[in-house]
Amino acid sequence: MELRKSYFADVRKDDLHEIGQPRPRSDSPGHVTGKTAFFADRNFPGMLHLKMVRSPHHHARIRSIDTSEAEKHPGVVKILTAKDVPHNVYTILILIQVGPEDETVLADGKVRWKGEAVVAVLAETERAAQEAAAKVKVDYEVLPAVFDMEEALKPGAPLVNEYHGQNYYLYDSGECRKVRFGDVEAGFTGADHVLEQSYQSSPIEHAPTETTGCVVAPEGNDRFTCYTNTQAMFFTLDNTSIILQMPGSKLHFVGGTVGGGFGGKVDVIVEPIAILGAKLTGRPVCFIYSREEEMQISSPRAAEKVVIKDGVMKDGRIVARKVTGYTDAGAYSRHSPYGAQKGAGHYPGPYTIPNVWIDTYCVYTNRTPSSAMRGFGVTIGDFALEVQMDKLARLIGMDPLEFRFINAYRDGDMKAHRQPTEGAALIECMQEASRAANWPVAEKYMAMSSYVKGA
Amino acid sequence: MAKVPVQFTLNGSEKAEFVDSGTTLLNALRDKVGDTSPKGGCHQGTCGACSVIIDGELRLSCLTLAETCDGAVISTTSGLSENGVLHPLQRAFLDTFATQCGFCTPGMIMAAKVLLDHTPNPSRDEVVEALSGNICRCTGYEPIIQAVLTAARANSQNAA
């Protein structure tokens, strides 16, 4: 690997010598010998298995739950419903004041997506738990459901989540996160061309080889050790503390070894109910998603729709950009209000545009709740933006790479969300890309720099 | 439920267990014998994380009933190193950065071992084919393929 030190040579003080040098990974010896302890490699005598009874409907009222037959099933030790959960309604990001609490640990009176957890069954064996779960009778009154974001935003659409009161997340800025910079309409009026395009994506499942789960062991002193593959240890600890109304000092979380996460293991789903099961039975508890649950139940990347309208000059300058972004949160917030907000900050892309208008909506539908995945909030946006950039270049008959040089942000440029650009290196990356891909651009672009003296 | 006795050799040691009829070899190894190196990624024979070697053949332990392994000779990744010295495959996986999250690694190494046992100097295509039943979701296939080819070269140099 070549480390080019010519870039920013006059401003860099570092003397990097680690980059390009192989260093052994500290976890690899455990991986290649089979000694790495994943959560499911913990086994305790008398461990119970937890299986979830899940909603077969996208949207339904629960008239009644009858667990009497399931309780009689051989091997069943405990059955949990909403009333057993001390603080049943929660939302993960309440820790950073993103509310309201809008999701139930176990459904209480209503289900809002197909697969929602309703009843937890704890039994001596996985098989007994599975068989007993099939004997739980839930009487549902099916309600109209909505699966499309634009349908969900129309007046009269079925209300997905009563805790919000409308099918979008209410930001302090209103029905969407807004960025306003310059005068976008004046920009369009003065533009040589205006191009508006829509882009959309479907949910994507992370599909880690190790499914989501945890193993909980009561320590006999009112403390519980939870072995988990969460990617968000402290979110999980703190949310579990809230849900179970237990001080954090009673909860010992052991993790950090994750068999593939990619953002799919940042939600707080399995730990609170497994710890509750361990607390109420005094037994170790194992709650592991089946492969089917991992694919159907765990949060995917949100479906998104992005509408981009750009005003561009014949010389290549983008003079106005208006973006409306929609993030499909599914039935509950989880990390999606944050994802949609990230999009609002990100949508101008790494380009300096004088007139920008952005609205991003976090929309509730009766779909599987979405959450984090690798750059969520910006990844789909980047796909849309860069396809749009290619279309704009084609529209004005310009080389797509040179078109990006013209609009690339540089140090000191004010971004639409009022953060001055610092430490930009887009131009230098594109210069390297131009060489590496053998896609030559005019010499004046190869002479450009992101670094602006005094900026 | 009546328990079924089963005896087999695991990584050179004799093992005897009573299992419920219908118990998979994967669960018997992990929960009864305590060898957690085979992983349960799908329990339906699609991911390869549970791969073990039974009587010289690569098998999915999640689709193999423990009671059918009576008298079998079984190898897993946890038994591959000898006296603390890594097997050439383990060494190669380390040196070529062929592990990321590590969950698929024991199964990958088992699949690779069966390949090299039968085909000491495989082509790249043969390596790809041999690993085709093992999913790496961190998408580290290229380093994994390189690791197997590296181990094969190390083996042939030692043999020469």
Report what the structure shows.
The complex is a heterodimer of chains A (about 450) and B (about 160). With about 450 residues, chain A is α+β, with helices and mostly antiparallel strands. Chain A has helices at about 30-35, 70, 125-135, 150, 185-190, 235-245, 270-280, 290-295, 335-345, 380-395, 400-405, 425-435, 445; strands at about 50-55, 60-65, 75-80, 90, 105, 110, 115-125, 135-140, 175-180, 195-200, 215-220, 225-230, 250-255, 285-290, 305-310, 320-330, 355-365. Chain A has 2 domains: about 45-145 and about 205-295, Aldehyde Oxidoreductase, domain 3 (Alpha-Beta Complex), CATH 3.90.1170; about 175-205 and about 300-445, 2-Layer Sandwich (Aldehyde Oxidoreductase, domain 4). Chain A has a 7-stranded mixed sheet with strand order 3-7-1-14-11-12-13. A 5-stranded mixed sheet of chain A has the order 9-17-16-15-10, sandwiched between helices. In chain A, strands 6-2-8 form a 3-stranded antiparallel sheet. In chain A, helix 6 (about 235-245) packs across helix 7. The radius of gyration of chain A is 26 Å and the shape is globular. The mean pLDDT of chain A is about 95. With about 160 residues, chain B is an alpha+beta fold. Chain B has 2 domains: about 5-80, Roll (Ubiquitin-like (UB roll)), CATH 3.10.20.30; about 90-160, Orthogonal Bundle (DNA polymerase, domain 1). A 5-stranded mixed sheet of chain B has the order 2-1-5-3-4, with helices on both faces. The termini of chain B are far apart.
